[in-house]
């Protein structure tokens, strides 16, 4: 259907033309252009009256032999949609970008960022060589010196303050392999304080969704949205954050004449295309969802059979929902009952319906509860596990899903094995290291402030410190931080500093650190905002376009990206830097036991094979590098909607594109991957499954296993628990295992062979046999409407810490103060103080933050790209026309936006618009480099300052953390705005 | 071949949508839903054109003129500029030349009336005045030619000398137009400074006009330093000059004072006034040179024949001689020969 | 005749002077369309001129330099 | 011969600006020159729509008509191109262009704004196809390679259509019939003196 351009003579001629002036060797194209006067310099001077206009020059003669054009495919790094980037490379220089028509995900298209991604590699603002601060001056150092000094310093800190004093902040820009390697390094170093951006974007999604039905990921796919007849987009603005996904959303809307309902405080570019827009007050998602469910239950629109067969404890939800009458919902959220009734009817009756959410739902002190409520809405209407339904969670970075999967998370080892002993032992087996040695790497934590001491083993199993609060763990008194010592060193890989709330506290934290290492293509806010004088290192990392490896898109599809060009300047890949550090720390031999290292660069393929060998729990076992590469080669064969290749294809026959996890068994088994999670209309071998039986088999006399529901072709025709050798023996299926498989299982199980499960069996035998019997290895359970292990088992509304409605706090207070992730969470105290001091009077405007299409995350990369930077040159605040009129603020004028904590303020441009309602302000979160009115450009190492700088919204965002994941609260804060 | 590929790519760009529908037809065979029409209240071109003659929105780049989406006035301006303007210009200029030729052939050259004072000179314009006149005049000629080049160059000149040479010439013309506008405008200011006081209209002018300025019939009506005809020329030059200056500046500094439509209007005015100005100046040149014997000397050497002066500017001559009884250039006043 | 000659010379001189003055008011597109929050390097002009060396010398092109020459590495 | 046109389906356009950066990427267009841009109408109000706009390559193009040096020409594909050798940077085309397409490397006074630059429909200029000189003056020539303009090829939601006018009109028509709404082919009346009748 998609017709690809012939890569014949024609395309060669173009590059012949472009490269005609390219000297042999590795002359950068930009340098070439500059020399030819295309880029730099001025124009014909007016006064000098250059005549004759542009002189004709010789056309490139046909005698010039055409240069070799290589086409490389990688994955766009700017969001989780997973657009294929097709690069044309001549003499090692990336000269052109072509549409990737073959990709079933983006079908040739890009957003502003993807279409400008070539510049990322060429950017003259990149960090070009390692640097360190010497007496406040940036000084060039060699890689050897940098690694040497960093290694010595963290070793010294480790000896003095313990392993937990070094914080390992990873990145969602890592490939799966780099993320996995980084987590492994953290484990070998002896700490669980290994985190990445998922903390601040979808940690609550992962926690909420996984606690509902088993896995914390998007259940369907972008493409599958084309099947939906009703879609609700709540707290998401895909038109700006995931533009290419809108291709599928809008196509679905058009083909099915689907209802597209946008629920958001802000009339976004997405809302402009909606069939219904619901404006809510920030931070009242649960009342809105319960308000919708109220109408659904009231009118009997729920899917009763689905609930009976596949959902646990929906009645507990009914009780909570009953409290949310239309009147109360309107009082709290501002949404009229009639409108919610309309939405409820559409969602429940015009099926299939899908629920799409993003950071508007997750970034709250009640983030996990929000996500849970959204899942429950899907469950109540039976909208899970079928085409066109599901929780379509749009994640933020190219590999934030993969990096989460790989365990860049303070609560888990790779692939969600958790931190329990069994998990450590599993990975010790995969890594072929001694469990005891791993344990010896961890600190013993002394008793302090009335808390018990922790042994090495206990510390090994205790969640680390979240990235949202690393600076609290630096700044707080030592006895408040529940580990051997507060944090002394930050190892920041590919992570901006400005995306975390409470920037002033972060700056204090930066200044209190003994060592700060920033490894990134750009200096980032971490390196540039503070006024540190020494002990700060910048390591130039190449972009992910300059390295091989797989990336997991939001829909769980893995895509193999190949190195487009060699790392530019002196930059090195994450792989290489991790290797060099490990070598310096004396860990290299153990860390790379089964991984080939060539010229200091560990092979991505080998890393993926190791992931395959250990990734049973999440079905990361079947995606071998060879299969993934075959998928990239055969992209055009996959169907646009089902994402499946024809069965008869020799290389990818029957596979779903990118082998979306879970992809069961060993690669040789050729499981096609799972396009739609929990879909029991398909055989497991065709990607069918059920809700994961993750939470036991029974609770309070009710079964937690599915009733009368099972995947197609299953030998077991009712619910069943997850599979272990014990279960296998009962069923007599152990006989189906081969001798080799049994040998491995015996080795794994030792004395307790019955406990060997589908997730710990390194042979893959249990999974293979499960598939043969048509059953899902993780069991066939019920989804939980009541997640009893969470702080709020059934979600309840809680007002934001800084609420514009103090009158509601008495009825809907935030959770009591508690200790979480080794630190106190004093949300309740802060909320009470805010109400007592009547903060809402002085700061009457709700401040919410979000994304712009041109930028991503902390924005250093994208703000350094002139093609993007030109389009958004100034940090701004969206302010409602009436609020602006009241304050005498004109569109485009400078204003001060101030926050309620510590008198912080930011100087930004006013964008007067009705996108936001009265009493609401919106600021994008991508900016940094200005701080409280001061331009900090001078603090960047010369020549590495991003093109555009601006105030960070997080200078004025405030306290508030989700109790389950430590998620911050940047979506419902308060502020005041005045003309500057 | 090439076309074929392009056409197929056209299909790629969007037919996927239809293909999908076909593939997935069974899943969505249900009847269309009652989803409200989301574009029922969406903006459309006709609606916006009813509100405003051009469509204007919001844009994030600082170049705010880019926020104009469509300005159909461009086509109207083009219609005027390419449709009407060449004809208007041609008519004005050729018409004036024709009129002057007709006048010349019917009335002939106005001769100097010889008298006893013939051969005696009186200073009519001092050096600065002549300098001002000539600076303005030379600039005007270049401006006129380079201005006309914008309209007629490609029609008349380009076919003769070829596009490349013409483009070079046009580039010169454009620069000279823009830069010589400044001495021209300065000249206008100087003219106002030195001649304004002599150009205030009064009753004598009325009589001069009633008498037909001496062109019709015999004898000369009274006139001061400048007769009504010259005053008209003065006010025309300064008025048109100012108008050309203002409209020109509006275009020279785009978007400082007016938007695109304002500039279109300015351009229209500039060219219309321009051709009228040129036509009028042609007449002025005619009278100052070919049309009247002795007139040229006023700006040539500055000195005119006293007899000419007396017949054309009798009151001025009286005044000058009264004022400068001991003036070196003037002979003592003698009683008019009756 | 002298007045005429002087006038022509003056007109030309003023025209040339005007060209210089006007050139100083002239901005490159990248200067005109960038804000105080942006520092643009290697701005380029438009796609003109294969032989264009990029180094224009003369009073009219002082604006062509980098706004913060000290910042370049 | 094909009659090349652009059509922006405003009911698909989400102002993602991919067309803008794709253009910059393909032709290395410098900062301040915007061959293509996206304008949002009724911003923040119900009925808001965004439209991507560049040179529409008009029928009987006004720019070509008013150019005092006749530097414009129309290709066999009906693409309106110009010669930077002949252009004197006078700015008349900017007055005449209904779509604000002409760009100038200098801003300020009229006289010396430099050679006009605009969207070439990714088909270069008067120089020999695919020559280095053509690339340097006008950017790449995708049409000569059998490709369409990159802005349309990369449009995230396939809102921006490029190709033969009748074909893209047909595609748009079918879309509108399928989905039941359409705010029209923006700019077509002004550019081509026709509209897509549904």
From TrEMBL, chain A:
Its main location: other. Gene3D superfamilies: 2.40.40.20, 3.40.50.740, ADC-like domains, Dimethylsulfoxide Reductase, domain 2. Transmembrane segments: none annotated. One of its GO terms (biological process) is anaerobic respiration. The keyword Translocase does not apply. It is found in: Cell envelope. PROSITE patterns: 4FE4S_MOW_BIS_MGD, MOLYBDOPTERIN_PROK_1, TAT. GO terms for molecular function: 4 iron, 4 sulfur cluster binding; electron transfer activity; molybdenum ion binding; molybdopterin cofactor binding; oxidoreductase activity. This is Formate dehydrogenase subunit alpha. GO terms for cellular component: cell envelope. PANTHER family: FORMATE DEHYDROGENASE-O MAJOR SUBUNIT (PTHR43598:SF1), TUNGSTEN-CONTAINING FORMYLMETHANOFURAN DEHYDROGENASE 2 SUBUNIT B (PTHR43598). SMART domains: Molybdop_Fe4S4 (SM00926). Pfam families: Molybdop_Fe4S4, Molybdopterin, Molydop_binding. Residues 69-125 form the 4Fe-4S Mo/W bis-MGD-type domain. Belongs to the prokaryotic molybdopterin-containing oxidoreductase family.
Automatic annotation (TrEMBL), chain C:
It comes from the Bacteria. Residues 40-73 are annotated as: Disordered. Keywords: Signal. Residues 1-23 form the signal peptide. This is Uncharacterized protein.
UniProtKB/TrEMBL annotation, chain D:
Pfam families: Fer4_6. PROSITE patterns: 4FE4S_FER_1 (PS00198), 4FE4S_FER_2 (PS51379). Residues 4-34, 78-107 form the 4Fe-4S ferredoxin-type domain. InterPro entries: 4Fe4S_Fe-S-bd, 4Fe4S_Fe_S_CS, ET_IronSulfur_Cluster-Binding. Keywords: 4Fe-4S, Iron, Iron-sulfur, Metal-binding. GO terms for molecular function: 4 iron, 4 sulfur cluster binding; metal ion binding. This is 4Fe-4S dicluster domain-containing protein.
